[in-house]
Design goal:
heterodimer, A: about 80 residues, mainly alpha, 2 helices, about 60% helix, B: about 575 residues, two-stranded antiparallel sheet
Chain lengths: ~80, ~575
């Protein structure tokens, strides 16, 4: 598992989970800041509460799911062009 | 230093001298050339010209304005960083070709007329093809050949467009061109190839990842940004570019998600970043064009940094494929750190480069009322976080431990990455320095509470989205594979077409040959029947029968005369 026998902090899945939860905590905290900081809207509707957070999250999910569909159509074996 | 020596020629001369100097001096030569050329640029005044008479016309070898200076500065910085990154390479054609390539790009952005531009345009094509070939494999040879064909086509379009315009206007000047004339359309197509417009883009993803660990870094800096420079000079405010650019930002990122070769992921990322610049130029506003130039400047630095970290991986771990890597932060902590700086810079984290450059283009799109474009660019920005911000460092250095243990990157590579990282953070933290060299006047400050908060929300939730998908088991794993793109049309379909044509032409050829052979055989038989040793015409006749026939002929003659 660990060829050099050293144990790293990130090797422990519990620490990875800590980071993941930390991301959620900071992200939600940033969205809550919308209440305090008045965000200047560039396009009008982006002034809505939590717009950027939601758009980023949904955007990524749409992107990755779309790419999975694309993969079905275009993925070929690695030596496709060498045959 | 006099202004009469174009800065690009200093680099070209250094590249040509490189094979002739002793090995120990080679690295220093490549390091000194960009420094000298940079000092030369600093001494130039806006408005300076160097003109020569040739071909019965006046050629403007050097035309100095803020646009050419901005690209000149960053090209020289890139050439300098490359010289450090490839310090250990003392053999083969790559370092010399790379320096000639950089010099040609610098010379091209200072060219005041289309003919001079064309000469250096072609020189970048040939020199960069040599950089691809220098990797040495058969794959690199084939990819370099495809790359060269595409770029020579771009050069031909440029020459044809320039000739049409010359016939029409009598001028070779390279200034605003626009789409009003057919020559303008041809030149736009030539530039479109360099900028990797949709369907003209595949040379980029095809060739860049086939170059060597050091070669790909060189390639990423110049060709596409030369295209952006030419676009910014000749086609600002061309509305079509807004749509082309938007497509470029949004389409390649889907491929970037599923691509396994991390250097090819970055090639798709180049395509996506170019899209932002093309939109900025299409908008044509001061903020949009400045944003495009600033983003080109920043992209050269952070894309170089990311590709350097991948080059270091390739050198040390022997591969840059996501499916084979992981856990390398244990062996290469410094490289991982620099890679993360590059990832943060391209993602537009506040205090890092893209935060102060890409945002100009988005703000300008919103100001011009292009809501859908703005939304698409925002979506593409989230996509950048996915493929360049997370995927590159995560699959390269973190993620599942591949068990690979290797040495940290060589010192010269670390120095180059450290400098690039420092520049990325410097631009992001002190944008005023970069804004001062931009071509247009503008009033823009990126560090408002509103902008910082909006960007942080977008970034954090994009990151959360990726990790959420990973933990849900939905995220597509890295697989050893190739993904078919538009180049399938000429690499596979074209090959099939050619093979089919070969068979068809061969069959026709054989049928015609058969027919000819048959006809020849039949005529030989016929001639034999007539003239062969036993045939009618070869028979020996007796003297008596001959006399009889002569008498008959005389009788006929008499009859004809007296009747």
């Amino acid at each position: 598992m660990k060829p050099d026998g050293r144990k790293y902090w990130l090797d422990d899945p519990r620490n990875v989970t800590k980071i993941y939860r930390g991301l959620w905590a900071i992200g939600l905290g940033l969205v809550l800041l919308d209440v305090i900081v008045h965000r200047h809207a560039e396009a009008g509707f982006d002034g809505l509460f939590g717009f950027y957070g939601l758009y980023g999250f949904v955007g990524i999910v749409v992107l990755v799911l779309g790419a999975k569909l694309l993969r079905r159509a275009v993925m070929r074996p690695e030596d496709y062009y060498d045959r | 230093m006099t202004a009469s020596v174009p800065a690009g020629l200093i680099l070209i001369a250094a590249g040509l001298l490189w094979p002739l100097v002793p090995r120990a001096a080679r690295g220093w030569l490549l390091l000194a050339a960009p420094v000298l050329a940079f000092l030369q640029l600093l001494s130039l005044q806006v408005g300076a010209r160097v003109e020569i008479e040739a071909f019965g016309t006046v050629l403007q070898l050097v035309r100095v304005d803020k646009l050419s200076l901005a690209f000149g500065y960053v090209f020289l910085i890139a050439a300098f960083l490359n010289a450090i990154f490839a310090w250990h390479v003392r053999e083969g054609p790559e370092p010399a070709a790379a320096m000639v390539y950089a010099g040609a790009a610098v010379a091209a952005v200072f060219a005041g007329d289309v003919l001079t531009l064309f000469v250096f345009w072609e020189l970048t094509a040939v020199a960069s093809a040599v950089v691809v070939w220098a990797q040495g494999s058969r794959r690199a040879y084939a990819a370099g050949m495809r790359y060269l064909i595409v770029h020579l086509a771009s050069g031909m379009l440029l020459a044809a467009g320039a000739a049409l315009r010359y016939a029409e206007t009598g001028s070779l000047a390279f200034d605003y061109i626009g789409l009003a004339s057919p020559g303008g359309a041809l030149i736009l197509a030539a530039i479109g190839i360099k900028c990797a417009f949709p369907l003209l883009h595949n040379w980029l993803q095809d060739a860049y990842p086939e170059a060597s660990a050091t070669g790909t870094v060189v390639l990423s800096a110049f060709t596409t940004k030369l295209g952006i420079y030419a676009l910014a000079r000749a086609y600002p405010g061309t509305e079509m570019l807004i749509w082309i650019g938007t497509l470029m930002t949004a389409f390649p990122i889907f491929y970037a998600v599923i691509e396994n070769d991390l250097r090819r992921v970055l090639a798709y990322s180049v395509n996506n970043q170019l899209g932002f610049m093309v939109v900025g130029i299409g908008l044509g506003t001061d903020l949009g064009v400045n944003g495009a130039v600033a983003h080109a400047f920043a992209d050269i630095l952070f894309k170089s940094l990311l590709l350097m970290s991948m080059g270091a991986l390739l050198l040390r771990a022997g591969t840059a494929k996501g499916s084979e890597l992981g856990g390398l932060y244990k062996s290469m902590p410094w490289t991982s750190g620099f890679c993360i700086v590059g990832a943060a810079s391209i993602s537009g984290v506040p205090l890092f480069a893209a935060f102060v450059t890409k945002s100009m283009i988005l703000v300008s799109a919103a100001e011009q009322g292009h809501l859908w474009v703005w939304l698409a660019l925002l979506f593409a920005s989230a996509g950048v976080v996915e493929h360049a911000g997370i995927k590159i460092p995560f699959f390269g250095f973190f993620g599942h431990d591949s068990g690979i243990r290797c040495r940290e990157a060589p010192a010269n590579m670390l120095v180059a990455m450290a400098l690039a990282a420092a520049l990325c953070i410097g631009i992001g933290s002190f944008p005023g320095v970069l804004y001062a060299v931009l071509p247009r006047a503008m009033d823009y400050s990126p560090y408002t509470g509103s902008h910082v908060l909006a960007q942080l929300q977008l970034l954090f939730f994009a990151v959360i989205g990726v990790f959420w998908l990973m933990r849900m088991g939905v995220y597509p794993p890295e697989r050893r594979s190739v993904n078919l793109d538009f180049d399938w049309l000429y690499r596979r379909f074209g090959a099939w077409l050619l093979a089919g044509l070969t068979v068809a032409v061969g069959a026709c050829n054989a049928a015609v040959a058969r027919a000819w052979r048959g006809a020849a055989q039949r005529s030989v038989i016929w001639i034999k029947e007539l003239h062969g040793s036993e045939a009618v015409l070869a028979r020996t006749w007796t003297t008596g029968s001959l006399a009889l026939w002569v008498a008959a002929m005389l009788a006929m003659y008499l009859l004809v005369v007296y009747l």
